[in-house]
Amino acid sequence: MRNMLLEKVEYKVDETRLGVWRRFVYPDGQLFEEFVSYQRVLGLPLIHYTRGKCPETGKRIVATGVLAIGRMARGVVAIGQASLGIIAVGQLAVGLLVGFGQATTGMLAVGQLAIGGIFGLGQLATGTVAIGQFAIGRYVLAQIGLGEYVWDMRAASPVAQQFFRSLLP
Q1: Vertex 126, ends 123 and 130: CA angle to 5°?
Q2: What separation in angstroms does the CA of 78 have from each of 1, 11, 35, 168?
Q3: 118: number of Cβ within 10 Å
Q4: Separation CA 149–CA 126 (nearest Å)
Q5: pLDDT for 14-61, tens place per residue?
Q6: How far apart are CA 116 and CA 65, in angstroms?
Q7: 136 pairs with which residues across the strands?
């Protein structure tokens, strides 16, 4: 296969009423595409979507916008395999407020590894309130827990029982 990085790239560009699509199909059938909305908020595109590797650089473009979607994404709401945002969703999700993913952080974190400031829910969870198979926090509900008020297989703190039962309707 020839080196695409040394050639001028002919993108297929489609302008819609919402923004611009830029697409390129590699000779082997791989697709690169990017959408950037016209509307901006504080200098960021309202929506930025990326897929595949940029033919000009051979690298992935980080989706950056209010709503950012791509393999790597950063924004107010970021959705991607690796994401960083106020609300982040992804395999590795670093959320300032909320994180959902396999390994995630946030004030509210839900994932296999959930490192939460206020609330963590996951196989391994931390937070003021932590629920998981293994959990560390102040109020803990777990198979194996560590914290101030723990309800786990070994013991049940009356304070933890009262706290978690108060969450039920």
Answers
A1: 80
A2: 34, 26, 15, 31
A3: 13
A4: 13
A5: 999 999 999 999 888 899 999 999 999 999 999 999 999 998 888 999
A6: 24
A7: 126, 146
CA 50 distance to own-chain centroid: 15
Which of these, 91, 87, 96, lies nearest to 116 by C-alpha position?
96
Residue 166 token pair: 């108060």
Structure tokens at 24: 């390129």
Q: Read off the tokens for 64.
A: 């950056």
Task: Give CA–CA dist 116/95, Å, rounded.
Answer: 10
Sign of CA dihedral 60, 61, 63, 69: negative
CA distance 78 to 72: 9
* Dist CA 53 CA 149 (whole Å): 49
3-state secondary structure (DSSP) of residue 138: strand
Site of tokens 């080196």: 3
